Amino acid sequence: MISQAAGLHTTIKWEFGISELEWVKRASNNGIQLQPLSYYEHSGDEKYEHNGDEKRSWNAVVLRFGNTSMEEIVPSIELLARLFKS
């Protein structure tokens, strides 16, 4: 078995303010990769609760901390908060 760097995924959901795509764009422009939840949605597959054709009333992104040191996490979260509010 070969060991590899692993990570943590967590989802942030909100209802008002910036769109998930705008936050992803702002983060990317600052060197942080977020994944919009819409990336994971499936269109036209009845086994999924949300089929992608319906408009959600909320936004969400997935944070992926892969091979990230603790020293990098706090400043990155602080930057994400500023980007969300700006």
List the helices and strands and how they pair.
Blueprint: E1 7-14, H1 20-29, E2 34-36, E3 59-66, H2 70-85
Antiparallel strand pairs: 1-3, 2-3
Task: Round the mean pLDDT to the nearest integer and report it.
Answer: 83
Largest sheet: 3 strands, antiparallel
Portion of residues within helices: 25-40%
The string of secondary-structure elements, in order, is EHEEH
Gross geometry: globular
CATH fold topology:
Alpha-Beta Plaits
| Second-tier CATH architecture | 2-Layer Sandwich
Strand order of the largest sheet: 1-3-2
N→C terminal distance: 45 Å
Give the oligomer, counting copies of the same chain as homo and different chains as hetero: single chain
Protein architecture, described:
The longest helix is centred in the C-terminal third of the chain and has 16 residues, at 70-85. The protein is globular and about 35 Å long. The mean pLDDT is 83. The N and C termini lie far apart (45 Å). By secondary structure, the protein is an alpha+beta fold. It contains 2 helices and 3 strands; from the N terminus they run βαββα. It has helices at residues 20-29, 70-85; strands spanning 7-14, 34-36, 59-66. This is PLP-dependent aminotransferase family protein. It comes from Vibrio pectenicida.
